Amino acid sequence: MSETLERWGSKRAFILAVTGAAVGLGNIWRFPYVAGENGGAAFLLIYVAFVLLLGIPVMMAEILIGRAGRRGPMQALSKLAVDAGASRHWRWLGLFGAFTVFCILSFYSVVSGWSIEFLVASINGDFDGASAAEIGAGFEAFLANPGLLIFNHSLFLFMTMTVVAAGVAKGLERLNNLLMPLLYGLLLLLAGYATTTDGFGTALSWLFLPSFGDVTASVVLHAMGHAFFTLAVGACALMAYGAYMPDEQSLPKAAFAVAMLDISVALLAGIAIFSVVFAQGMDPADGPGLMFVTLPIAFSELPWGAFWLSVFFLLLLLATWTSAINLAEPMVATLQGLGWRRSVSTAVVALSVWLLGLLSAFSFSTLADVRPLFGRNVFELVSSIPPDIFLPLGGLLIAVFAAWVMPREQVVQALGVGESGYVLWRNIVRWVSIPLTFIVLLGGLL
Ligand code: TRP
């Protein structure tokens, strides 16, 4: 791989690229259902605290490693470790990240496929006049049809890997520029509509009035995992993007801006979705189908509902697309770093992710009761263990590397905030982020 990579066109382009990675299914699909299963407001509060205390500082650590190394994750870690007089074995962290995103992308692609199906269905007007019960039953029937799930999974993965094969920077910039404001606007509209429903008051108190009685070690672990997942931190995927970061940009500002955007997208989606949940007397703990059932109901009440629903699924699809491209990048970069051609690396990654994804697709029918570990089927496993355990573990090691192993001057330069900003960041990472992640991981595992 060449030593000087291409750069993002501008500071704004870098922020948009990272936002594109961050905003995706995590905000609109995963946040509501995981919050729903973990008690609502207390989960939200803990997750926001983790974004501030762990997510943002570790995101900075991850990006600065990429920026200082200016290479793919494994090579960057290896070079920086050797420069710092530390062991080259740090490079295996890059491989662990690649393995983590491999698991994540396999189910991410299947669920993104659901958006394709729903986009087509909403364009066809399939939801027109359908009742909540009919929409719910339709979703169940869809999940029970593995052929359809696999078709959409294949289509989505193909879309993703084509962009990855071409190299990330160019196409992504333009897409993100357009997509983010549109998606945000539509979510605002939906949240505005939510204020007019009967469920709005209940949704607000459910989301914002915590009852700490329900907080267990497992709720805290899920909240931490979700903070990493939604920010795209902990798998060296942002490290890969940091390698293309412009020299003069301030990293903390960028990380903070992305995190705020990311949280607000989740909140808007949460308000819209839970208002419908409560207005319709549904169960917030309904699991992965929550968004796919509530939003068609919400839109069907709006004037021009079918049109807005199609627009929504289109934007969601584009948002998950930019996230999936980010998920694929560290794997492709790793194989490329081993000397493989980009086209071959992309093909191998695509095929492997596709195969693992098949197991997730079958987890809603044929393989629903095949539960290899912890009583969970494959979909439940890959959508919980890598986000909740692997990402925090990867993030922990990334933080240790940036805050304890890398030499001071190098970090000061890569952070781009001067001495005092550096000291503040380092103290937070050393004495808050690292111990906190460690304790929550340990507590959750025991
Ligand atoms: N953050 C994305 C979402 O919320 C998912 C994602 C993209 C991700 N890139 C990642 C998660 C890297 C972990 C690591 O949908």
From TrEMBL:
Location relative to the cell: Membrane
This protein's record includes keyword Transmembrane: yes
PROSITE patterns assigned: NA_NEUROTRAN_SYMP_1, NA_NEUROTRAN_SYMP_3
Molecular functions (GO terms): symporter activity
Chief place of localization: membrane
A single GO cellular-component term on record: membrane
Keywords: Membrane, Symport, Transmembrane, Transmembrane helix, Transport
Pfam families: SNF (PF00209)
CDD domains for the chain: SLC6sbd_Tyt1-Like (cd10336)
Spans traversing the lipid bilayer: 12-29, 41-65, 92-111, 149-169, 181-208, 220-244, 256-282, 302-327, 348-369, 389-407, 428-445
InterPro entries cross-referenced by the UniProt entry: Na/ntran_symport (IPR000175), SNS_sf (IPR037272), YocR/YhdH-like (IPR047218)
Record membrane topology: Multi-pass membrane protein
Protein family according to the UniProt entry: Belongs to the sodium:neurotransmitter symporter (SNF) (TC 2.A.22) family.
Protein name in the entry: Transporter
